[in-house]
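Moderator note: this is an archived Q&A kept for reference. The question asked for a predicted structure of one protein chain; the sequence and the answer are reproduced below.
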Amino acid sequence: MTPQQIVGTALRLIAVLVFVHALNLLLNVMQAPSFPEVAFLTSRFTFVGVAYLLVALLLWNLPMWMAHKLIPKTNHDNHLELPVVEATRVGCCLIGLWVFIQSAQGFVWTVITAFLDHNGASQFSRMTLDAKAGFLVDMLMISLSVGMMFKSNVFARWILRFNETKQ
């Protein structure tokens, strides 16, 4: 692989990370109207979420163009010996860990409050609709991150398949 191809693959991984953050932000925006203290920020958060989606789309569709802008032109025979699939798997695992750490906080908070509250009723049944939605978003993000960590080989090959068709 040339240095540009390595950077292009990394940009695709960053596009996935930006997409996950945009998804998390837009799902959290859906909860904002129930909180009057932040309801006025809904349009701004929506704008930022859509901007993240556009950046993710740009990074996903134009990785080699950006890689050539970031790294000066080199000879075509300037190859680096780096196992592509393994490097991409490492990137997938790192993104999965990052997303897991970010989304596990809300899940752990819900579990701790359920253990500390001994009222006898189900914690989930006493949650407000917004708290249930937040818990569902956290579970979705945790599931996505666990899939990225433990199925990194499948995800890496899927990303690299797009790199091969673009060249």
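Archived answer notes: The radius of gyration is 20 Å.
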